[in-house]
Model the fold of this input.
Amino acid sequence: MIDDEIEIAGIRVPRADWEATPASIQMLVRILSERLLALEEKVNQSSQNSLKPPSSDGFGKGVKAKEKSKKPFRVL
Done:
């Protein structure tokens, strides 16, 4: 039955287990869940979805050493 479970931080837990968990541990789980969500949102930010400048995005795909050292042919 769906009523026999509760969702905590995106995870389904039997309601009886959650209710048997001490209040201090329930509070800890809630606090850590909120902190995790905030950190995940922060990690997923880029200049495209925040006010951060493009220079803070870091480097994308780097140029391989072989590609970097290739020089175009020079016509004389």
About this structure: The helical segments are 15-20, 23-43, 65-69. The CA atoms of residues 44 and 50 lie 10 Å apart.
